[in-house]
Amino acid sequence: MNALITDHRHSNVNDATIAKLGTRLLSEIIRINQAQTLGYDTDYAFVNIVNDAKLFDEIKELVHAKQRLKPTIMLVVGIGGSNLGTLAIQQALYGLFYNEHDPEIKVYYLDTVDSDYTNDILLLAQQALEKDETVLLNIISKSGTTTESIANFEIFLNLFKSYYEDEYKHYIIVTSDHGSALWQLAQDEQFATLTIPKKLGGRYSVFSAVGLFPLAMIGVDIYQLLRGAQSAIPNALTTDIFENKAALSAAHMYAHYKQQIAIHNFFIFSVDLQGIGAWYRQLMGESIGKAQLRSGEKAAIGILPTTSIGSTDLHSMVQFYLAGPNSTYTTFLSVETNKSDLIIPAQQQFEKIVHNIQDKSLATIMRAILHGAFQAYQEKNRPFSTITLQEKSAYCIGQLLQFKMFEIIYLAALLSISPFDQNEVELYKQATRKILAHE
Ligand code: PA5
Q1: Alpha-carbon dihedral 47, 50, 51, 55, rounded to 10 degrees
Q2: Distance from the CA of 30 to the center of ligand 1, in angstroms?
Q3: Does residue 219 sit in helix, strand or coil?
Q4: Tens-digit pLDDT string for the chain (439 aa)
Q5: Measured in whole angstroms, how far is the alpha carbon of residue 65 from the centre of its chain?
Q6: DSSP state of 50
Q7: Most buried of the four, 27, 91, 112, 114, by CB within 10 Å?
Q8: Could you tell me if residue 127 is inside a domain?
Q9: Is the CB of 196 under 6 A from ligand 1?
Q10: What is the pTM (predicted TM-score) of this model?
């Protein structure tokens, strides 16, 4: 099934430019094609993880074992690539609030070390434990040494030890690199462990145990999610740039970047997909912001990723985007089919307040606003493209995220940079460790 339709008619880049960029991408497409036979022994491991049947079975087995404990709360401790994809998929499929249709297990995400935020979750976990409910914790850290994640983990481990006493090991699942310090601790403590392939970078790891375990725990159909991700691959490896959606999208971004349009705004017309905006912002920010080219030559490369939510941010940012410097290329993302169909009741006294909305569905009004935005962008000659996602199903979301990972890889190839490292992130980590050594 084709889960997404892309449209670049209003991007204002001509076909000759795109064709040239397509030729430049051929070697990268061939490289990824070849990487398909290399399993995890490749920087492009994200392509192969979606076909790992052994991993799928291992996760299913662990999920069954932990679901037997009947948890009501699951704490996901992890930051950046270790939680953004999971949160994005959960929100896309279940929405932002818990209601009776949602899984019985509530998930709380612990990423940063904000004392009040962590304490709020600690109190919720404590309340559940007092009522003899089961709380699980999944700590996810590829390196196994991320300050924030280990700090939060230690606090909750302490809580688990005081409630579960000698049994605490049954309620903790560790996801990390094989052999990391955290993985070693998990072995010593006999916690259940899931491993992340060494060459699979955090921001490309959503379809590994990082995302699959917590998502399967809350009832996400991870089989459909992976099928969706798999379905994006043949198109993403097509050598015809005009057919290859990910390469085409990357080529448009690159062409704008070369014209000094160095901001990319992902304008998402679906509140439930806001997490995908945050996930993509990290994917682009860490993969594309670079201080050197692949050749080692010094450079300062980057497209600033911003995310907006429609129609909310039409009342916030669009004045800047349409009136300010012509420095932003926008991709509008909308969803074709909603899960609900709310209709505004026909009440005559409102007709004179806002015309022509009585008896119309919210989806109709949202569509009118989206197309109104398209017209305003065209009028102001601001470049944009569109992605229409068929529905917010596991399959469609899987296809969308995989398409986006390919897009960023192709964008990096055009920019002659590596999308897999993040050397500058280390700078603050090292500085923090030094500061803490003297606190
Ligand atoms: O994408 C990345 O590599 C980073 O955002 C990491 O995911 C993030 O820094 C967390 O690292 P770790 O999983 O090692 O705790």
Answers
A1: 130
A2: 28
A3: coil
A4: 889 999 999 999 999 999 999 999 999 999 999 999 999 999 999 999 999 999 999 999 999 999 999 999 999 999 999 999 999 999 999 999 877 667 789 999 999 999 999 999 999 999 999 999 999 999 999 999 999 999 999 999 999 999 999 999 999 999 999 999 999 999 999 999 999 999 999 999 999 999 999 999 999 999 999 999 999 999 999 999 999 999 999 999 999 999 999 999 999 999 999 999 999 999 999 999 999 999 999 999 999 999 999 999 999 999 999 999 999 999 999 999 999 999 999 998 999 999 999 999 999 999 999 999 999 999 999 999 999 999 999 999 999 999 999 999 999 999 999 999 888 888 888 888 889 988 7
A5: 27
A6: T
A7: 91
A8: yes
A9: no
A10: 0.97
Helix (H) and strand (E) counts in the chain: 16, 12
Q: Report which protein residue has its CA nearest ligand 1's atom 7.
A: 81
Q: Is the CB of 85 under 6 A from ligand 1?
A: no
83 lines ligand 1 (CB under 6 A): no
Q: Is residue 432 included in any domain, yes or no?
A: no
CATH number at residue 358: 3.40.50.10490
Domain assignment present for 324: yes
Q: How many residues does the chain have?
A: 439
Residue that has been written with the tokens 């297990």 in this structure: 105
Instruction: Tell which of 175, 191, 220 closes a domain.
Output: 220
Which amino acid residue places its CA nearest to atom 12 of ligand 1? 141
Same-domain status, 86 and 20: no
Distance 422 CA to ligand 1 centre (A): 9
The count of domains in the chain is 2
Whose Cα sits closest to atom 15 in ligand 1?
A: 141
Instruction: Name the residue range of residue 82's domain.
Output: 45-220
Q: Are 29 and 143 in the same domain?
A: no
Q: Which residue has its alpha carbon closest to ligand 1 atom 8?
A: 80
Q: Does some domain include residue 437?
A: no
How far apart are the CA of 296 and the centre of ligand 1, in A?
23
CA pair distance 337, 389, nearest whole angstrom:
8
Give dist(CA 146, CA 113) in Å, integer.
11
